[in-house]
Structure formats: structure tokens, C-alpha cells
């Protein structure tokens, strides 16, 4: 919200403060002032000039030599290239010595051999944004009214000796989206009286009810509609003061009728719209929902295809405006317009937001309706517009407005005790002081039985509960006045929960392994929702998704991690290692909400080792990812409880995929992408993993504290054993059989070789194990090792197809 202080002075006296001091007070009261902008930009030597003579430049077709009266003894010769400069105009002149906002220094110069003693300026050159400059002057200099006094300070005449405050409003403070709303705020902050605009006007003997009928069919979406009919309107350029105020508010002036509706919008926060009465044709206004396939060309000259959810204003037959969003081109006010209808209405914010968002059509009006307008200003704003139309457009306002009104305009009442306020603030504000503050805010307040009965004006729709009243009292009393106190009572040292500590350990391990954290959407497409899922169940779809790609809650982290990896690879980042700790959503609870589980997922691709100076390279493979998983399990104390079981999963390589099992239950997945999947996502050899973090950490938390053993004092002995196995028999199965022999002296089992070559029988492979035996009490003898080793061999004999080499 842009607030002109010159405009604000119409309502409240702010003369006792500097602009910076006022901005500071507003910020300290709860509305942040983002910027304090001087419209004059500190410019000097900017005066009003009169073009007395003009001739073409002899050396340039697009330049003119102007003899300009600037109030000095002699005319000043100024070279001007603006296409709209002409003799007899009053213009803005920057004299030598002026410095414009863009840094240009004006000085005497020669242009193509002719002297130029200044510059005739456009509004853009004075620092006004091009988008708010009137269209007639958007491509040239700004022409002043003939009543302008030659030699006078042009900035003062234009009203640019002004300061603009840019307010950063929170969504709940829709009341401050108007000059009056800001004036109420400043009046309360400064304890100054408030002056409201005059809305009275002389009415015609004719009645609007005899010229126009209004029918509202969608009453829940439009509970109040006020229509005024104004005759004999003269559409012309607005006076300079009105144009300046609109430009200061960031609005482009068009003509006096449209400018008045925009002025009242900025003043009251109530959107208005002007229809050309003759172009409405039927003398009727009907508010209804659009018919399927109905179209409307809006004021921006775009044809809009409407849906039955769009509220429209019609002439009883066809749409003439999108309610609360934008008017239609078929009833636009033009220079030929003589009779207009002023619409002031209350439209439900949800419907306006839905239509505005669907069409991508956001306007000042829709922004205010979406946040909620003051129901008691609907009529006031219409009256204010009528008063200005009489004053600035010579209009004649017909009596008896055409009104449909089923809107609840009752003010909310809140009862608060002073003790409640002071208890929440930790202060001792007297009741009398509270009453004074609330009255400064224009709240109705009465003391009854030691409590405050507060009537909240309808413009403050953000005040709903007792705590809101407490906040209002605190911010006007002054947050700086709240005493500083140290907390009392028992102090408890904050710490992480066991689950939070476990999650942090998990992050440390995977980041220590070289992976970077990724954060991806929880929403995905229905097609990808269950891909690579550890456990699948009923999917959860959004009722109103942003797009098909974000319509369903995910059941696996892997698809989006693959997309992130592919995004990096496509931008020449050939080695990618990413992990994510995030939620997946599987099945439905009795409350129809999905079960939410926290998982950890990872993806790696490219080179795992690339030491150019050592000539060493190693591409990622299954065992790199398995090593990361095992490091994580070891850190959590679960390495001996987890097994890897070969499996087949759609989208993953059938020979490089395994389920991660804990206590016989699948808790995760590890594997390489199938070549077809790699081609689809745009990656080369890639490996992924995902585990249920909730189960992992719950299991880790039940483990006993880590026990440390002394370093063995006596040496151990190792035996290597090479086994010929059926190709489908896994090393993990063999290891499990060895462990099942329960040989106390066996301390370590390590696979150090796998061979599947031509020298092996068909369907066979060789797997070599290194077995380490030791005893913490003494040095082992050969006989003890042989006995222990024979137990292992006996257990291995139970495996079908096994031969010891």
C-alpha cells in the first residue's frame, strides 16, 4: 500500500512529525513501513515554462527549437525532441543546474550546432513510473493546464513535494488497504482527531428506481448491491490534483469518471465500477452465476470463457462484468458517455478469489474483495463517488438509489476484563488508559461490572477474540513500554528427543559419506506415486491439485530424487549424490487421513572416486550404496540385525536389487536402476536406496547402551575357505549358515572373492571366505582352530550343491 502524506493530511494532522518519525511510529505500532520515498527526489530548478515560439531544428528532422518563457527577463532557447511538443503549451522545464532522478545533470549544451538552455521534461524524467503516467503523455512531455503560472516551482504545482510511505501489510490488515484505513491508524497512534470526507450532494428530482432495475439471484455471493444513476456527465481529463494522487498511489489516470472510481477505491477501500448506461441497453442489472461456455471480453480486451462458478453482472441477458474482478468492454465508459451507473457492491471473497485465480486476472478490486471489505462502506463509497462526479464531471445524481441489501452489518461485541489484558501483557495498565486507547481506535467501549464491553467497527474484521483486543491495546500503548522481566520458576534444560537425536545422527552419517541434502515436493503424479514404494496402499489425491504432476501424495522418496539427479546431470554435474529425509503417505486411517511415515532416501550416480593425480577412478556401484547403508546401520547399532535379501522390483535391475530386512520385516530397498528406467529419466548407471526411518530409529532406541571390549591381548588365527555354490545361492545365505554353527571362537566372517568364469561348471560360482578365530583368554592352538573350523564345515555341508575347493 502506497500512502501519500499530502493526501493523508486531508484526514489527520501530522504536521508535528517529520516523515521519518511518522514512519517509525507506524512501524512500532504494528504496520511495517518498507520505504519512505521523496517524490521530489531532492530536485531543484524545476519550473513551469511556456512555449512561446517553436521552429524545426535546421540540422535534425526530429528536433525542435523552442523559445520558452520560464519567468526570467529573457526567453530560454531549449531543444526538444518530444513528438507532442507544440507552441502555446505550458510545460515542465529543468533549468541548468538541475539534477534529475536518473542522475542526469542539466547544463547549457549544443545540440547539432544549436544552444539549449535546459530541458522540457516528461513525467518519467521526474521519476514517475511509466506505467502510471497518463496514456496521452506516455510517449512525450507532460502538458500542464493553461492556468499554470509561468516561473512557479513545477514540483509544488504538480504536488510532487510529497512523501510516499510504502506499507508492508499482513493479510489480516485489509482495513489499511485504503487511505481512510491508514488515517484511522495514524489518528489512533498520534491521538489526533479524524476528519472524514464529505459525501453529501444535491439530488435530482428524477429517481434512479424509475430508470434502472437491479435483481440479485446469487444472494450468498452478493448480499448487497448499490447502483446510482448519474446523468449529464462530462467525460474529460481529471484535474491535476486527482491525477497526482492516483499516480502517487500507483494508479494510471484515464478520465475523470474512471479516475473517481479509482480514487474512491483508494480512499475507502471499496471497489466501484462505472457502466455506460446507454450501452447497458436494457435498463436492468442482474447478478447471477455464468452459464457454461458463456464469454465476456473484459476491459483489457481479452475474451474470457466463463464457468458456472464465476459470478457475473449482466444486463439481464449477457454478461457485462466479472463481479469483483473486472468490467466488460461492452459497457465501458467512453468520451461519448453522458449517463453512467455507479456500482458499489459486497462480493464474497472466496468466489472472487476463485475466478481471479482461474483466469490469472488480479486487480486492485479483486485483491480487496478477497481480503474482505467493510460492509458499512458500500453505501458510503457510492455516495462519495456521486459527490465527486457532481464536482468534477458536472453530473446530476438521480434520487433513490437502486439497492439490494441482505448484508449483515452488525458490529461484533467482545467482552474483556482489564485483568485479562494485564495478565497477558505482564503489565499494569489502568482501565481508564485502556478505554482511552480503544476510543482512539474508534472502538465503542463501555465499562460494566469491572469489564470492558467493546464494539468493534466493521472495518476491523481482523478483531475477533479477546486476544486481538489485547494486541490492539499493547501496540497503541507501545510495545516499548512492556517491562523487561526475567522468567521465573523451575528451569528445564532443553534437549533433543531420542528420535530427533537419532535423525541428526543419520544426517551426519550420510553427509559424511558425501551426499547432499535435497528437499522435494511431497506431491507427485498419480503415475509416480507408488513407484519404488517399500509398502504400498491406497493413494491420497488432492481435491483441487495445482497440476497433474502434483496431484497425489507420494509413497516413495526415490522418484523425485531421481528427477533432482537428472536435473543436475543435464547441467553438466556428472557426479551426483543426494539424500532426503521426508514423509511418505501410505493408506488411509479411520479418519480418512493417510498414514504419514518418515523415510530416508538416497541416489548416487557418476564417479565415486576420481583422483586425477593418482590416476584412480571408481564409478558408483551397488556396493558403494550398500556401504553407505551399512555405515548408517553400524552407527545406529543395527548392523548385526539387518540382512539384505535379493528381490525384484519394477524399474530396478533384477540382479542388483535387495530388500533391507530387520527382524524379518522389510524396512527398505537398495538397488541399481534398470537400463530402461535410466534411459527414461536421463541418467547413466545410478543406484538408489530408501528405508523407513521411523522403524530404524525406534529399533535403535531399544538397543542397550554400547559396550566396549578390550583390545585382544592374544593373537588370532585365520582360515580361508573357497566354496563352489549354485549360482542362485547368495553369499549372505552362506554367511548365515556359518553363523548358525554357533562357533564361539569364530569372531569374523569376510567375503574376499567371487568368481564366475569359464573354469566354473555351468550354473556354479566360487565364493571365498576368510574366517578369523580368536580367544580373549589365551593363544589358540592348531587343534582348537581345526576343531572349530570342522564345525563350520559340518554346517556348510547342509547347503545343497556346495563343494569345498
Automatic annotation (TrEMBL):
Catalytic activity: tRNA(Phe) + L-phenylalanine + ATP = L-phenylalanyl-tRNA(Phe) + AMP + diphosphate + H(+)
Superkingdom assignment: Bacteria
Cofactor: Mg(2+)
Cofactor binding mode and count: Binds 2 magnesium ions per tetramer.
Biological process annotations from GO: phenylalanyl-tRNA aminoacylation
Domain B5 per the UniProt entry, residue ranges: 409-484
TRNA-binding domain segment(s): 40-155
Keyword GTP-binding appears in the UniProt entry: no
Catalytic activity, EC: 6.1.1.20
Location relative to the cell: Cytoplasm
Domain FDX-ACB residue range list: 712-805
Binding locations of Mg(2+): 462, 468, 471-472
UniProt keyword Plastid, yes or no: no
Family matches, as InterPro entries: aa-tRNA-synth_II/BPL/LPL (IPR045864), B3/B4_tRNA-bd (IPR005146), DNA-bd_dom_put_sf (IPR009061), Fdx_antiC-bd (IPR005121), Fdx_antiC-bd_sf (IPR036690), NA-bd_OB-fold (IPR012340), Phe-tRNA-ligase_IIc_bsu (IPR045060), Phe-tRNA-ligase_IIc_bsu_bact (IPR004532)
Keywords per UniProt: Aminoacyl-tRNA synthetase, ATP-binding, Cytoplasm, Ligase, Magnesium, Metal-binding, Nucleotide-binding, Protein biosynthesis, RNA-binding, tRNA-binding
GO terms of molecular function: ATP binding; catalytic activity, acting on a protein; magnesium ion binding; phenylalanine-tRNA ligase activity; transferase activity; tRNA binding
One term under GO cellular component: phenylalanine-tRNA ligase complex
Family matches, as HAMAP family: Phe_tRNA_synth_beta1 (MF_00283)
Subunit text: Tetramer of two alpha and two beta subunits.
UniProt protein name: Phenylalanine--tRNA ligase beta subunit
Natural source organism: Lysinibacillus alkalisoli
Amino acid at each position: 500500500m502506497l500512502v501519500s502524506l499530502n493526501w493523508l493530511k486531508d484526514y489527520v494532522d501530522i504536521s508535528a512529525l517529520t516523515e521519518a518519525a511518522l514512519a517509525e511510529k507506524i512501524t512500532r505500532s504494528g504496520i511495517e513501513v518498507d520505504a519512505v520515498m521523496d517524490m521530489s527526489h531532492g530536485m531543484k530548478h524545476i519550473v513551469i515554462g511556456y512555449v512561446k515560439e517553436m521552429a524545426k531544428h535546421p540540422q535534425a528532422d526530429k528536433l525542435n527549437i523552442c523559445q520558452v518563457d520560464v519567468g526570467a527577463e529573457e526567453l530560454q532557447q531549449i531543444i526538444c525532441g518530444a513528438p507532442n511538443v507544440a507552441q502555446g503549451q505550458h510545460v515542465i522545464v529543468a533549468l541548468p543546474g538541475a539534477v534529475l532522478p536518473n542522475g542526469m545533470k542539466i547544463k547549457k549544451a549544443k545540440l547539432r550546432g544549436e544552444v539549449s538552455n535546459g530541458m522540457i521534461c516528461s513525467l518519467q524524467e521526474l521519476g514517475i513510473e511509466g506505467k502510471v503516467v497518463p496514456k496521452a503523455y506516455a510517449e512525450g512531455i507532460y502538458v500542464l493546464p493553461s492556468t499554470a503560472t509561468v516561473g512557479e516551482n513545477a514540483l509544488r504545482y504538480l504536488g510532487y513535494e510529497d512523501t510516499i510511505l510504502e506499507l508492508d501489510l499482513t493479510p489480516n490488515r485489509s482495513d489499511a488497504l485504503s487511505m481512510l484505513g491508514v488515517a484511522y491508524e495514524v489518528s489512533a497512534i498520534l491521538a489526533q482527531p479524524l476528519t472524514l470526507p464529505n459525501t453529501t450532494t444535491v439530488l435530482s428530482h428524477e429517481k434512479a428506481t424509475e430508470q434502472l432495475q437491479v435483481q440479485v439471484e446469487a444472494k450468498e455471493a452478493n448480499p448487497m448491491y448499490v447502483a446510482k444513476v448519474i446523468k449529464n456527465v462530462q467525460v474529460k481529463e481529471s484535474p491535476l490534483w486527482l491525477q497526482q494522487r492516483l499516480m502517487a498511489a500507483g494508479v494510471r489516470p484515464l478520465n475523470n469518471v474512471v479516475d473517481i472510481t479509482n480514487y474512491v477505491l483508494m480512499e475507502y477501500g471499496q471497489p466501484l465500477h462505472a457502466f455506460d448506461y446507454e450501452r447497458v441497453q436494457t435498463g436492468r442489472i442482474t447478478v447471477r452465476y455464468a452459464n457454461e461456455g458463456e464469454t465476456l471480453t473484459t476491459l483489457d480486451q481479452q475474451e474470457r470463457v466463463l464457468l458456472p462458478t464465476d459470478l457475473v453482472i449482466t444486463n439481464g441477458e449477457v454478461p457485462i462484468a466479472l463481479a469483483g474482478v473486472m468490467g466488460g468492454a461492452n459497457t465501458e465508459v467512453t468520451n461519448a458517455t453522458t449517463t453512467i451507473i455507479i456500482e458499489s457492491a459486497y462480493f464474497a471473497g472466496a468466489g472472487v478469489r476463485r475466478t481471479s485465480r482461474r483466469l490469472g486476472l488480479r486487480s486492485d478490486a479483486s485483491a480487496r474483495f478477497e481480503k474482505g471489505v467493510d460492509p458499512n462502506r458500500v453505501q458510503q463509497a457510492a455516495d462519495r463517488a456521486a459527490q465527486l462526479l457532481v464536482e468534477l464531471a458536472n453530473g446530476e445524481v438521480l434520487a433513490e438509489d437502486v439497492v439490494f441489501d441482505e448484508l449483515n452489518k452488525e458490529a461484533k461485541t467482545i467482552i474483556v476484563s482489564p485483568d485479562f489484558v494485564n495478565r497477558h501483557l505482564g503489565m499494569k495498565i489502568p482501565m481508564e488508559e485502556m478505554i482511552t486507547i480503544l476510543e482512539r481506535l474508534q472502538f465503542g467501549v463501555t465499562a460494566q461490572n469491572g469489564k470492558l464491553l467493546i464494539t468493534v467497527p466493521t472495518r476491523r474484521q481482523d478483531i475477533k477474540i479477546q486476544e486481538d483486543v489485547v494486541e490492539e491495546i499493547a501496540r497503541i500503548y507501545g510495545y516499548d513500554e512492556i517491562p523487561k522481566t526475567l522468567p521465573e520458576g523451575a528451569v528445564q534444560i532443553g534437549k533433543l528427543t531420542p528420535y530427533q537425536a537419532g535423525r541428526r545422527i543419520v544426517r551426519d552419517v550420510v553427509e559424511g559419506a558425501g551426499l547432499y541434502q535435497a528437499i522435494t515436493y511431497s506431491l507427485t503424479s498419480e503415475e509416480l506415486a507408488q513407484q519404488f514404494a517399500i509398502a504400498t496402499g491406497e493413494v491420497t489425491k488432492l481435491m483441487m491439485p495445482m497440476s497433474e504432476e502434483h496431484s497425489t501424495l507420494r509413497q516413495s522418496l526415490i522418484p523425485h530424487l531421481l528427477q533432482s539427479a537428472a536435473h543436475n546431470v543435464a547441467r553438466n554435474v556428472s557426479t551426483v549424490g543426494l539424500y532426503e529425509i521426508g514423509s511418505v503417505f501410505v493408506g488411509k486411517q479411520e479418519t480418512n487421513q493417510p498414514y504419514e511415515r518418515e523415510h530416508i532416501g538416497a541416489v548416487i550416480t557418476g564417479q565415486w572416486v576420481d583422483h586425477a593425480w593418482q590416476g584412480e577412478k571408481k564409478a558408483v556401484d551397488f556396493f558403494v550404496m550398500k556401504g553407505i547403508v551399512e555405515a548408517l546401520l553400524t552407527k545406529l547399532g543395527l548392523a548385526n540385525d539387518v540382512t539384505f535379501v535379493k528381490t525384484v522390483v519394477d524399474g530396478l535391475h533384477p540382479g542388483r536389487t535387495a530388500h533391507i530386512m530387520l527382524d524379518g520385516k522389510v524396512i527398505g530397498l537398495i538397488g541399481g536402476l534398470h537400463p530402461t528406467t535410466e534411459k527414461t529419466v536421463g541418467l547413466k548407471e545410478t543406484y538408489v536406496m530408501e528405508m523407513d526411518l521411523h522403524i530404524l530409529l525406534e529399533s535403535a532406541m531399544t538397543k542397550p547402551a554400547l559396550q566396549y571390549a578390550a583390545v585382544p591381548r592374544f593373537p588370532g588365527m585365520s582360515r580361508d575357505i573357497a566354496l563352489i555354490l549354485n549360482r542362485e545361492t547368495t553369499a549372505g545365505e552362506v554367511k548365515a549358515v556359518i553363523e548358525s554353527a554357533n562357533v564361539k571362537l569364530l569372531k569374523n566372517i569376510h567375503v574376499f572373492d567371487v568368481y564366475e568364469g569359464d573354469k566354473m561348471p555351468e550354473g556354479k560360482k566360487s565364493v571365498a571366505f576368510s574366517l578369523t578365530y580368536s580367544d580373549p583368554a589365551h593363544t589358540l592352538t592348531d587343534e582348537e582352530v581345526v576343531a572349530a573350523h570342522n564345525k563350520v564345515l559340518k554346517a556348510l555341508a547342509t547347503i545343497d550343491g556346495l563343494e569345498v575347493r
